[in-house]
Amino acid sequence: QVQLVESGGGLVQPGGSLRLACAASGSIFSINAMGWYRQAPGKQREWVAAITSGGSTNYLDSVKERFTISRDNPRTQYLQMNSLKPEDTAVYYCVADVRGKRYWGQGTQVTVSS
After folding, report:
1. Which tens digit of pLDDT belongs to each residue from 23-82?
2. What is d(CA 81, CA 52) in angstroms, rounded to the nearest whole number?
3. How many angstroms separate the CA atoms of 100 and 114, rounded?
4. Which residue among 14, 20, 33, 108 sits deepest, i.e. has the most Cβ atoms within 10 Å of its Cβ?
5. Euclidean distance between CA atoms 101 and 83, whole angstroms
6. CA–CA distance from 36 to each of 20, 45, 65, 74, 114 (Å)?
7. Residue 12: in which H helix or E strand, if any?
8. How far apart are CA 28 and CA 50, in angstroms?
9. Nearby residues of 57 by Cβ (< 8 Å), 6 or more positions away
10. Are 51 and 35 a contacting pair, CB within 8 Å?
11. How confident is the model at residue 4 (pLDDT cuts 50, 70, 90)?
12. Which residues lie closer than 8 Å to 82 by C-beta, 6 or more apart?
């Protein structure tokens, strides 16, 4: 079992930055890949970024060059979000893959508005 808790969301103006964090507890040494999804109002949840245990990363095309995913230990991952746009407004969810099962955090709201 893995529990995930996100933090760092909030309100930011267009062009601003936020850093989301996700802290894992439980069977953290069984975690393979971690990542982020988001869900905007009235839209389906979409994948944003992923990072493997080896440090390889992938990004949704619309966030490449603006978002950076990182892990500094098996327990914590981050999503640095720069040059934020109103269309980045969503609830952001942390995910972790453990032995073929995906765990989800409760989500953190990011609102980009002037």
Report:
1. 999 877 788 899 999 999 999 999 999 999 889 999 999 999 999 999 988 789 999 999
2. 19
3. 41
4. 20
5. 33
6. 10, 10, 16, 15, 25
7. strand 10-12
8. 17
9. 49, 50, 51, 68, 69
10. yes
11. very high
12. 17, 66, 67, 68
The amino acid occupying position 27 is S
39: tokens are 């869900």
Neighbours of 30 (CB within 10 A): 14
- Cα Rg of the chain (Å, integer): 13
Beta bridge pairs of residue 19: 80
Task: At 101, list the tokens.
Answer: 């099962």
- The DSSP output letter for 15 is T
Token pair 């994948």: residue: 47
In 18-100 the beta strands, taken as DSSP E runs, fall at: 18-26, 31-39, 46-51, 57-59, 67-73, 76-81, 90-98
Q: Which two tokens stand for residue 47?
A: 């994948």
